[in-house]
Specification:
By secondary structure, the protein is mainly α. It is built from six helices and no strands.
Length: 180
């Protein structure tokens, strides 16, 4: 029984090589999206590399991975902010409709009556994106956090060994609810 780890045909390999471009957010190959500034990415990348101070190809590769993961995390934060802004815009529109109904500048038969409490509840509910969006954000945040922490642990251990120190064979990262 063979253990196949990927495509074996030239056509399959060519197709799978494009996965990074399709997925973007979790891709092992990194690409600046059209809405992102390549100069800003390069400045950010250089800052991360300077902070991590890698020596040699492997440390440099791990440092690059960390920079990419942190950049992707910024993308997730941006997406979350956009979702909240969209929800708040919808709440503001509800407020405008309610105000127009109250002032009599909007025909009541076109829109149902909206109470102030209903609008305030709607506005508060829009502070957090829809459930499906929150699930997506949390999944990507968790993935990127694990990747960043694990890669940092690998890099730190490698740097300590390079300087003559010793590192434990395993590191334990416990993340969970503070409640028992």
């Amino acid at each position: 029984m063979t253990n196949q780890t990927g495509p074996t045909t030239a056509k399959g390999k060519k197709r799978s090589a494009q996965n990074a471009w399709k997925h973007g957010i979790t891709a092992s190959l990194f690409a600046i999206q059209p809405f992102e500034d390549p100069a800003q990415w390069e400045e950010y990348r250089q800052g991360i590399l300077a902070s991590l101070n890698p020596v040699g190809d492997l440390e440099h590769a791990l440092s690059e991975r960390i920079a990419i993961s942190l950049w992707l995390r910024r993308r997730i934060d941006h997406y979350n902010a956009v979702q909240v802004r969209a929800g708040m815009r919808m709440a503001r529109n509800s407020l405008k409709i309610w105000g127009a109904l109250e002032q009599g500048t909007l025909a009541a038969q076109e829109y149902p009556a909206i109470s102030v409490d209903d609008v305030l509840v709607e506005k508060a509910a829009r502070l957090i994106p829809e459930r499906e969006v929150v699930i997506i954000i949390m999944r990507y945040e968790a993935h990127l956090r694990r990747e960043i922490v694990q890669t940092l642990h690998e890099l730190e251990a490698m740097q300590i060994r390079r300087k003559g120190g010793s590192t434990p064979l395993a590191r334990l990262d416990i993340t969970g609810s503070p409640n028992p």
